[in-house]
Amino acid sequence: MAKKQFKSESKRLLDLMINSIYTHKEIFLRELISNASDAIDKLCFISLTDDKVGMDRSDFKICINADKDNRVLKITDNGIGMNKDELENNLGTIASSGSYKFKQDMDSKQDDIDIIGQFGVGFYSAFMVAKKITVNTKKYGEETGYCWQSSGADGYTVKEIEKDSAGTEIILEIKDNTDEENYDEFLEQYRLQGLVKKYSDYIRYPIMMDMTKSRVKEETKDSDKPEYEEYTETETLNSMVPIWQRRKQEVEQEEYDKFYSEKFMTMDKPLKTIVTSVEGVVTYKALLFIPSATPYDYYTKEYKKGLQLYSSGVLIMDCCEELLPEHFRFVKGVVDSADLSLNISREMLQHDRHLLTIAQNIEKKIKNELNSMLANDRENYEKFFNAFGRQLKYGVVSDYGMHKQELQDLLMFYSSTEKKLVTLSEYVDRMKEEQKYIYFATGDSAAAIDALPQTELLRSKGYEILYCTDDVDEFTLQTLMVYKEKSFCSATNEDLGIENDEANKEDKGDSSALLTFVKETLGDKISEVVASKKLVSHPVCLTAKGGISFEMEKYFNSVQPDSGMKAQRVLELNLSHSAVKAMEGFIQTDIDRAKKYAEVLYCQALLIAGLPLENPSEYTDLVCSIM
Ligand code: ADP
């Protein structure tokens, strides 16, 4: 029989497939099963109105048969089948199949062979694992069956055959193993079972396979040496109805929990399960989970952000990043939309309008769920915030603060007065009438912040202070700048916006000589010395002037030691403190001692601010010399 040639573009693709070095060869099974399922869909549809089909929905199935000895894998369906023309058109030329798109994209990416895996490459993908493919098929309602055969790019043959019933049988002669590739795996029943579970679990028709199992022989059951025998059992490999396609009311939370832990291989239970079904411009269902614990690799490169993407129950992408914004990267789940085609690449997806709309909806949905959790289930929200709050703060800071409006109401900080996590909105609602700013203070721990002299005045006024103990906290507030028209103010700022306080009444006229003396003694180490308005019981503190805070200085110097980032230091003196008074006294009687006092007080201010001493041993010598 004369061989017919593939169309030229098909030939190229076939070549690619056959010689593919692509590691995801396994997707061929998904492609063949999806084709079988589509074919069954078509006949099933006809059967609704045509009694002659003689089958109802429960009769349809896809069978997989692996014959290890002969290296043959068969995939059979009782779907609509193909006639001669269809065989030629569908399998003889790529242009009629979704694979055409693949080829077009391939042209622009000659050397990126890996993109093969991002595509649904259809029937031809079977050539990645098979050296010869036979398709026996008979179209529903026709008399003659046909056999299509091909060993690859050199062409194909079509001949008539006897076939009892409508449907298609795809017979793959699996390639021999090579040094690099093990093709045997595609003949192993457990591997095949695993592939069906992974890619085709939610195909609506049963995918059946004869599984060889082992059991104790009945007659040796009670003996000391039981003997085993092999037997065959037909199993349905797929679960058929995806949990996200079922109505929420019909699914127990335990089922969702089980699905979550099996699918995403985690031990924790989801803190929140979000089920959504949208119909309209795009139609999709999504099942999303907010984990209750931070995955151990969450802040590493290993952690992959994304949702599983299905098209009508067929997995098309394991981890579709485009579906989740960075700030909600902790969310896990699946999205299923019939509007997406199987034959879609990662590159194409990025520009897919449907996908974009789905992603936007999902982002809104997650945000609303978190908001309602915050309002109605505070305990769980705090649990969530402890696990992923840092991610939300990163979200505020990143992209030049683009997402801050969206995220600000979800933030929480530990409060000095409430002694627990509070939201910004709660803070603002509680603010005192005359209070100008939302105050925050930065430090390693709540206790360290409490000990900061700079917070003394704020506390004595009864003002609430938000504790920034996470390294991203201060950046977050700096990025927000204002919340409900109130600006943020660091406790270490020189100007706290507090008028008429007690310290302010201090007679500053006398202090100028003291301030000049201290400035001259310390020189460039500080930019200014001032009489403090905020110190109550402590002698000194440092405040930062200008845009750079001490926390920013510390942060930048830790990530980039030679950054040269330095906050402008303002040394505040508590003029009524005895140590300061003593220093003032010595200016007249013992100038050297007064200078030492100034140095010591400066070093103390550095220590309190959590900044490193320039020369610790010099400092201790200094203290000793005074003692
Ligand atoms: P795609 O499925 O993306 O269209 P394929 O290369 O996988 O591309 O298949 C080409 C066409 O061949 C299908 O669209 C379908 O019409 C036909 N086909 C493939 N497998 C079967 C099958 N098992 N039964 C009936 N038709 C099939």
Account of the protein in words:
With 627 residues, this protein is of the alpha+beta class. It has four domains: 11-236, Histidine kinase-like ATPase, C-terminal domain (Heat Shock Protein 90, 2-Layer Sandwich), CATH 3.30.565; 243-377, Ribosomal Protein S5, domain 2 (2-Layer Sandwich); 382-490, 3-Layer(aba) Sandwich (Rossmann fold), CATH 3.40.50; 507-626, Up-down Bundle (Four Helix Bundle (Hemerythrin (Met), subunit A)). Mean pLDDT is 87; it is low at 95-103 and 109-120. Bound molecules: adenosine-5'-diphosphate (ADP). Adenosine-5'-diphosphate binds at residues 31, 35-36, 39, 77, 79-82, 90-91, 97-99, 122-124, 168, 343.
Label this structure with key terms.
627 residues, Heat Shock Protein 90, Rossmann fold, 8-stranded mixed sheet, 6-stranded mixed sheet, elongated, binds adenosine-5'-diphosphate
List the helices and strands and how they pair.
Layout (H helix, E strand, L loop, with lengths): L7 H11 L8 H21 L14 E6 L4 E6 L6 H9 L6 H9 L22 E9 L6 E6 L5 E6 L5 E8 L14 H12 L6 E10 L11 E9 L16 H12 L5 E9 L5 E8 L15 E5 L2 E7 L11 E5 L9 H5 L2 H24 L1 H24 L2 H4 L4 E4 L5 E3 H7 L7 E5 L3 H5 L5 H5 L4 E4 L4 H8 L1 E2 L2 E5 L21 H11 L5 E4 L8 E6 L4 H10 L8 E6 L4 H12 L1 H18 L7 H11 L1
Parallel strand pairs: 1-7, 11-13, 16-17, 16-19, 20-22
Antiparallel strand pairs: 1-2, 2-6, 3-4, 3-6, 4-5, 7-8, 9-10, 10-13, 11-12, 14-15, 14-17, 18-19, 21-22
